[in-house]
Design a protein that fits this description.
It is built from 8 helices and 2 strands. It is mostly helical. It has 2 domains: 72 residues, no CATH class; 76 residues, Arc Repressor Mutant, subunit A, CATH 1.10.10. Helix 1 links the parallel strand 1 and strand 2. Helix 5 packs across helix 7.
Length: 156
């Protein structure tokens, strides 16, 4: 049986700002894809759906659940990944700005955290090749602007 990685994204949307909200949703999708997520959910949309008729079509226990890969019982992202604000900065530098691990460490980030993050990104390259093409919303997109070999045990 194949495992399915599900991500959850909470966004600070602006009522009536379709372009900005769409960009935020697409950025969240792109980030989730870079983390190897198969399915991403948006709790705000679930809350909105539930508010339409006052029901809990989507249970609040699902909406309010902490992010987790759920590969082990009680596993939480906070136990295996750095804080999201730190992780976002490292991923931006590594993926979008094409900085090396050494350059990111020189920016003041913990060496082990940077090395592990780069390893996770590079190790998931094959997963991105299996995903359908997505909309490019940042300066660099996986697959088109950032291609890594997936054979011969490439280590960057």
């Amino acid at each position: 049986m194949r495992q399915l990685r599900i991500g959850m994204s909470q966004l600070n949307t602006t009522v009536g700002d379709f372009a900005s909200n769409t960009k935020k949703i697409l950025e969240a999708i792109n980030e989730a894809r870079s983390l190897g997520v198969d399915l991403i959910t948006f709790p705000e949309l679930a809350r909105y759906r539930n508010s339409l008729d006052g029901s809990e079509t989507i249970p609040s226990t699902i909406i309010d659940k902490l992010p987790s890969a759920e590969l082990r019982p009680d596993q939480r992202d906070t136990g295996t990944l750095p804080a999201y604000d730190q992780l976002d900065s490292i991923l931006t530098a590594y993926v979008e700005e094409d900085k090396s691990v050494e350059q990111i460490i020189a920016m003041g980030f913990n060496q082990e955290v940077v090395k592990r993050t780069a390893q996770l990104v590079d190790g998931s390259e094959y997963k991105r090749r299996q995903a359908p093409p997505g909309i490019k919303i940042t300066p660099r997109a996986f697959g088109r602007d950032r291609r890594l070999p997936i054979t011969n045990q490439f280590k960057g």
